[in-house]
Queue: 4 jobs
Job 1
Amino acid sequence: MSHPPFEVLEHTADVGLRVYGRSLPELFANAGLGLMALAVEEQAIQPKERLSLAASGADAEEMLVNWLSEILYFVDAEGWLFCRFSIHRMEDNALQGEGYGERRDPASRSRAVAVKAVTYHQISVSRSGDGWEAVVYFDI
C-alpha cells in the first residue's frame, strides 16, 4: 500500500475565553486572570511584587487586546507570573492598572498553552444582564 508523501492535519490554532465582570474594570482584571490560567501551568503565585500596566485603544475591544498583549509581554519577556490584577483608572480610550505576582526565570516555568498573541478574531465587549461580558481569542 503506497502512501502520499505527506498529509495535512487539521488543528485549531487558537483558544478563546469568555470573561465576565460586574463592571468594565472587573471585566479587564478577570480577562488578565483568564490569560494567566491559559498561559501558565497552575501553581502557587504569591503577590510579592506589583507591576504598573497600561493600555489604550480606540474602543473597549482594542483596549482589551492591548491590555492582554501588555500582560503577555511581561509574562514572556520578563518572567512575570500574576495572581491578581486591579484597574485604577479607566477612561474611554485608556486604562491604568497593576498586576500582582512574582518574577521567575522564564525558562523555568512550564506553559499550559503556548499563547503567542492576542487576536481581534471574533472579539467582543458588551453589557450583559447585570454586568459585562467579553469574548477574546489567542493564537497558540
Job 2
Amino acid sequence: MSQAAPTILVCLAATPRAAAVVAIARLWAELWEAELSFLHVTENVANSRDRMARYIPSDVLPLEEIHFKTGRPDWVICNEARRSGARLVMLGALEQEGLVTSILGSVARRVARRAPCSVLLLTRPSEFRLEHLVTSVAFNKSSTQMLQSVLKIAKRHELQSLHVIHEYDSYSRLLRIIGNRDMGDDDYRDQIAHEEMFQLSELLASLDTEGLPLTAKCLDGHIGQEAVDYAHDHNADLLVIPAPDRLGFWDRFFKHPTETILEHLPCSLMLYRETKEQAS
C-alpha cells in the first residue's frame, strides 16, 4: 500500500497577507510533495467569508477550499492538526510582540508551543524568499532528523547560503568543573570550543551535504539569543530549530531558549517537531 501524502495545515487570517501565505504554502507543498488544507478560525463565519473574498481572489484560492471554524484559535488549530495528521502547520506571526501579548502569547506563538507537529511562522509572507537558511542543531536524534529534512529542502532550492550552527554555553560548563585548577578558564574555553566543533563536524560528515553552500559554526553564549543574533546578522530568510518536548508556563519567565527566539523572531521560523507517524 502506498503511503498517503503528508498534509500541511495552512492557517489564514482575513488580512492582506493571506494571498502571500497561500503562495508560500503551495511552494512548500511542492517541496514536501504534500496536500494542503486551509483553515480560518473566526467568531463570525459570514463576515470572515466576505473579508477573505476581498483579500484572496477566487482564481488564487476559491472560498470553498477554506474551512471556516469557530473557537479559540490556538485550540482549534492544534486540534485540527491532530485530526488531520498534519506534518506542518503554517501561519503568519508578528516579528515582536507587545508587552501584553509577550506575557499572554499571540496565537502564532501558542500554536508553536503546543502543536503536535512542525510549525512554520511567517513574519513577512509577501517578501519571503528562501535564499539564506540558518538551522540551529543540538547533538541528539531529533536534531539529526531535523537536519536531514533541512538538507532535503536545501537541495531542492537554489540557496545562496546554508548555515548550520550549534549553540553552547561554556560559562555553565565551567561552573561545573571549576574545582579543577590544572587549567585556566581560557584553556577550558578553548578545549570546549574544540570539542563542540568536532562534534558538529562529525554530525555533518555523517550526512549528504555535497554541493550545498554550507557554513558550520559553533556559537558560545546564551542559547537561543545566539541563534537570533546570527540569523539577523546573516540576513536569514528562515531559521529552523528543533521544537522542545513541551514549553510550560515557567519557561516563559525563566527564558527557555525557544522562548527567547519566539519573542524576538529575526526572520521566519520553523520549529521542527517529529509526529508519531514519522517516528513509526
Job 3
Amino acid sequence: MAIRVAVTGIGMVTPLGNDTASSWEALKKGVSGVGPITHFDPSGCETRIAAEAKDFDPLKYIERKETRRTDRFQQFAIAATRQALDDAKLDIAALAEEIGIIIGSGIGGLVTLHEQFKLLYERGPDRISPFFTVMTPVDMAAGAISIALGLGGPNFAIVSACATGAHAIGEAFETIRRGDATAMIAGGAEAAIQPISIASFGNMHATSRRNDDPEHASRPFDAGRDGFVMGEGAGILVLEEMEHAKARGAHIYAELVGYGATADAHHITEPAPGGRGLVRAMRRALQKGNIAPEEVGYINAHGTSTQYNDRSETDAIKNLFGEHAYKLAVSSTKSMTGHTMGAAGGIEAAISVLSLHDRFLPPTINQFERDPDCDLDYVPNKGREAKVNVVVSNSMGFGGHNAVLAFRRYEG
C-alpha cells in the first residue's frame, strides 16, 4: 500500500506577519506588505521598494549569542520551524532519528556576505568573523535546526532559485513515501534584500520601479505590471506519514498527494514558450496524486508580476486544463508578500494548505487593467470563500526550474 503524507504543522515569517496566524489574516484581507526599503539606504538604486519582514525578533527563537552566529535567512528558517513543530505537537524526542529536514534558500547568507566583504575591504582580513563559513552556506539552516533539536533523519538543502521551497517540500514528500523518514520539516527561507541584489535585479529590469506607490507595485497578471517586488521570510511545513499522524491524533491540515519537477531547458531567465515545462510539472503532480484536471479548484500561481512569467504561466494553465482553466480560480499571493525568492515555494505551499483547510481563496490584489493575454479568474482584489478539494501550488525559478505541489483536502 502506498504511503500517504499528511501536513500537520505550518510555520511562517512573511512581510505580512511574523507567524502563520497574522500572515494568513492579512492575506485574507488583501493587505500589501510592500513599502520603502529600510534595511539600507537605497537612494542610488533604480528600485527602492521591497517587502520586508517587519519587526522580526530572532530572540524569541534563538539565544542571543546564536544570533551572532546565524544569518538572517537562517533565523527566519529557525523561527518558522519552531512554529511549525509547536503547531504539529510532534514528540521530537521520541522520533528524533526518524525526523528529517530539507530547507533550502535561493541565495543563502547574503546579509552576512555583504557585511563581511565590507569588513574585508575596509578593515582587513583579521576582522572577518570565524563564523562566516557557517553563516553563509544554504545548507546551514537545515544543519543548525538538526543540531539544535537533535533530529537525525535525512538532512540537506535544495537550491533551485525561486522554485527552492517547493522542491524542498516535494523531495521531503518523496522521502517519507519511500520510507526513509516518519516526518520531515521542509520549506524555504530567504533574506536577500541587500544593495547588491536590489541593484542587480533592478539593472536587469526585472523589478518594479513604482517607488512612489509601493503598495500597488506588485500586480501579477495586470496589464500594467512592470516587474516583481523582492520579499523575504520563510515558509515551513511539517509533513508526516499519514498513519502515524492519525494514530497520535494529530490535527491534519491537508494531504500532500502530488509533486512534479521538470526543467524548461530553454533560457536562463525566460520561461519556455507556452509554459511547456510547467505544463509537464503540473501534469506529473496530478498524475502522481491520481487527480483528474477537473478536480482542481484553485491554483496558487507563481505569478511574479513580470511580463514573461505571468503570460507563460497563464498559457501553461490553459494548455493543461483546457476549458476547465476558466472554471478554476488562480491567484498570486506575491501581490501581497512580494517575491520571497527561495522562500516563495514554502510560503505559498503553506497558503495553499490553509486555503484548503479554511476554504478561503486569497486574492490577487492590484488588479486595475485587464491583460488580454491573462484572461483567467485571478480572484481579483478581494478574497472569497470557496469549497475546493484540490489545490495546486506552482513554482518556477531562473535556470528553467519548475516545481509543482498538489494538495487534497483531508476529511478524516
Job 4
Amino acid sequence: MSKNLKCFDRAIEAIRRRFPSLRIEVGTNADRDPVAEIPSQDGLDFDVTISQQNDDELHLETAGFHSEWFPCAEADKFDDFLEAAGGLLGGRYRVLETLAGKTVIESHLQRPEKSGSWTAIATWSSLQALIPGIRRQRVVRNQGWD
C-alpha cells in the first residue's frame, strides 16, 4: 500500500473514531480510487463524499462544494483535511453556497471565528460564477453532532 493511500485509510479511521455511529461506505470509484460515501442519516443532514485521487489528494465533497488537500502525505495538509472534514460533519463548519437560479456556482467551506464572523478555508467555483446575474446565498450546515 502506498504512503498516500494510507492517508485515506488514516483519515477514514480518524473520522470513525470521532463519529462512531456515523455510517461510512468505503469502496472505489470508476478510476479505482478509494472513496468513502457518507449518506445523509441520523446526525448528518446531507451526503458527504471523501476520496483520494491522483495519488496525493484527499477530496471533500457535498452536493454544492468540492475541494482537495494535497499533498496528503504532508502532516499539515493531512491535519487541515481532518479539521475540515470533522468540522463539516460535526456541524462546527458550514458551506456558504452562491446560487444562480437553482444551480450552485460558488461555495466556501467556512469555520467560525471567536468574533462571530466566518472565515473561508476552502473555495469551489464554476466558470458560471464569472457571468453577471441575480444571485442568492444559502447556508448548508449539519445540525446533528457537535
